[in-house]
Amino acid sequence: MKTKWNIWLAVLLMAVFAITRWPGVLPPNFSAAYALVFCAGAYFPGKLAWWLPLGTLLLSDIAINVFHYHTDPVGSYMLVNYLIYAALIWFGKKLTGGAPFTALLGGGLLGAILFYLVTNTFAWLENPEYAKTLVGWIKALSLGTDGWPYTWEFFRNTLLSGGLFTSLFVGAMKLSEAPEPEPAEEKEAEPAEAEPEESKA
User: Total domain count for the chain?
Assistant: First the structure.
């Protein structure tokens, strides 16, 4: 029964996560994606840890691209994102949900940092506005390009959301796995030993 409950909890969390991905629902780069894929690896059993988060991400990405941005359903840039997601699931599986809360929180934060570094490095390599130098790379990680918010603000939101959503997810799973208190066993009344009758004089 508990396994079924955990699976339904996972599906519910993924459904809520898919809604929060719609542009404008959360601040830019304030996403639960990095936390949830990491925690999926730590908590979800077997293949569910792979197909549920990645399937949710793919379907929501397609919906956002088609209905919000009015562009192609998939793009080459998505490959980098999904490779990172897969790496975070793998990392979560190595850590497992039995790890302490602080270790899982650290894993979620590490995942957020990794996602930020890799995606912004990829943007630095692809965007001709960035000089292909160390200074250009640092600019990609801190300032970004003209006309857009500073990328350090994206990093702040990425780190905050990674920590927040990892805490919420791990907390929910820890509570769902908490053992139920066992009812106190009633002590059976022990029959009083019959006192030996006094010998009659």
Answer: 1
